Amino acid sequence: MQDFIFHNPTKVAFGKNSIQQLATLLPKDSKVLLLYGGGSIKKNGVYDTVMQQLTTHEVVEFGGIEANPEYTTLMKAVELVKQHHIDFLLAVGGGSVVDGTKFVAAAAEFDGEPWDILAKGVEVKSAVPLGCVLTLPATGSETNIASVVNRSELGKKLSFLSEHVRPQFAVLDPQTTYSLPDRQLANGVVDAFVHVMEQYLTYPVNATVQDRFAEGILQNLIELGPRVFEKDNYEVRANLMWNATQALNGLIGAGVPQDWATHQIGHELTALYGLDHAVTLAIVLPQMMRHQRSDKREKLLQYASRVWHLDTSDEEAAIDQAIVKTEQFFQQMGMKIYLHEHNVEETVVRLVPRKLMENGMMSFGERGNLTPKDAELIIKAAL
Amino acid sequence: MQDFIFHNPTKVAFGKNSIQQLATLLPKDSKVLLLYGGGSIKKNGVYDTVMQQLTTHEVVEFGGIEANPEYTTLMKAVELVKQHHIDFLLAVGGGSVVDGTKFVAAAAEFDGEPWDILAKGVEVKSAVPLGCVLTLPATGSETNIASVVNRSELGKKLSFLSEHVRPQFAVLDPQTTYSLPDRQLANGVVDAFVHVMEQYLTYPVNATVQDRFAEGILQNLIELGPRVFEKDNYEVRANLMWNATQALNGLIGAGVPQDWATHQIGHELTALYGLDHAVTLAIVLPQMMRHQRSDKREKLLQYASRVWHLDTSDEEAAIDQAIVKTEQFFQQMGMKIYLHEHNVEETVVRLVPRKLMENGMMSFGERGNLTPKDAELIIKAAL
């Protein structure tokens, strides 16, 4: 096992009607900016439930944060924070709203050009405190320090990490997911699955807690994922929600090598073609597994055996089957796993490597030995 | 899944030489009381390494905290805290030292008779902040809110819980375990194993994260436990240490029913006969499993299948085998699993239920349907 620091102080309030704990979770006397997305929370009752908890707080609202939150949109929220002297941000939505709120939190206190946080990786030294009410389990953003922001005008989707933007609390009420469309539910399951794979499918370092927990989450997602479409099934939704949080809260990634190459290539596909984040992951991961078959061999075998319960006496066959089973799982979740199924043309093979180079991604993956050329081969296999 | 709050803000610094992060983990300018046990840290170099980190702090020392920390000993430390206006407690040792330090932290700021925290369950409203350097993985105390204290003169071993005594940080350097005697290493593995069982082997509530994580830790302990005796094997010690922390940090116990009957009966055996805590658990748990076979049936089958990989087509045989395998695992760890092997006489059958009644334990277990009479039957089976 590698040395690590693990520290996740986010307080999670999980369960039926946990939104009703909001009033006690929020700092007293804080001036709150409530951030949300396209307005679905106004239709499904979440907005009203949240507002009932905010009667003793001064509240300013900011709606309209996009899936793949847009830099220019978020900068408008930053203005609101400054104008109204906001001292707490409350994100109500899915990973995009939480990610966007994290950027607002950092940008509002940033001394300089906020774009540099993303484009140049300039360190965030403070942020407006934030909390969240999660309505779409997927990204793990609700308790972690990561944020991904899109800037369409430049065709860039970039991320930053900062301990200062970790939510102080996360309210997880699985009932808030009842009104989600199937596409978003499916995206959430696939996203969580690939988050685990990015931290698990690398090379072994004798990290038994991390491996077993990762394998546990993967098995749960495989078992429960296809049931996410069942209407108002609390147990299924609750379990998928908690599995998604555990998939990216730092725990299974502490003390182990991490990959994230699938995400890096996926981000370029989203930036280029506007494909849903999870959709890009379902396209890239299987071909990544094939391309990295040799470097990931030991963990591929462990994955075949422990997650898919395959007989590994014929090692090559077991690896083949594990990759095919992964593809079938994505398809079972409604994903199209080839680019042509999304009408993406062959030029993608040149465009993705070029964009990786533009973004300075000259070497990536858990061994740092993947290059834009490898991305080209992976994309070619995914055509 | 049941509703829950999960919040574990302890910062963990894990790995080789992590003690060298102590200076940055400790609050600046704090006046530190360093608490430790029988002095082994002075022989194995841990004391010196810790003191090198404390050169800019004012430090008062308090050694001599016993395995099963004694109330009267701890109250002497409370006096030191008051006398020297200590504002941070640093526990260096195993679970007993950390538990003892937690009690000192609470008692030093307690308005009233500190014994009432344990004997009457009076709420702790504040505590001196504390951190720890863990040298014996076992109890999970390094990141949780629990503390168990012994008062031999009254024959009582009692516990309390308070968010105020959760360590701010936990330094986990697996190398500090190299000098531990085999008996303590074995105790640690068994203790962690039974902690998981108390939170896992109850009745199913559809908690897939908690179940899979619990099953993962159990499998790891079964695989690695017998290797704990290997000299200076960093990988084995590191993994056992992190598994033991995860076994009782609140994560696998969130949103599920919990048992703790084995611990309650075990505590009485320690109070009566001075048996090591883990030794009592290895004696009680197998008979508890047999006694509760019907109430725990579904989880016993899941345990047989997922942890021991037993064929469950014959359900009764699978449960039988799972219990026997649990016993064999304890024996493999060097545990004697019957009371007569420890020269405990038959009067124990009457004494344990009587002590449970004295301590107000009239109903316990995950369904609250165990009574001192059940404890009598369990103890009889363990003779």
Automatic annotation (TrEMBL), chains A, B:
Residues 9-174 form the Alcohol dehydrogenase iron-type/glycerol dehydrogenase GldA domain. Its cofactor is Fe cation. The keyword Lipid biosynthesis does not apply. It holds the Pfam family ADH_Fe_C. GO terms for cellular component: cytosol. Keywords: Oxidoreductase. Residues 186-357 form the Fe-containing alcohol dehydrogenase-like C-terminal domain. InterPro entries: ADH_Fe/GldA, ADH_Fe_C, ADH_Fe_CS, BDH-like. The keyword Oxidoreductase applies. PROSITE patterns: ADH_IRON_1, ADH_IRON_2. SUPFAM superfamilies: Dehydroquinate synthase-like. GO terms for molecular function: alcohol dehydrogenase (NADP+) activity; butanol dehydrogenase (NAD+) activity; metal ion binding; methylglyoxal reductase (NADPH) (acetol producing) activity. Belongs to the iron-containing alcohol dehydrogenase family. PANTHER family: ALCOHOL DEHYDROGENASE YQHD. This is Iron-containing alcohol dehydrogenase.
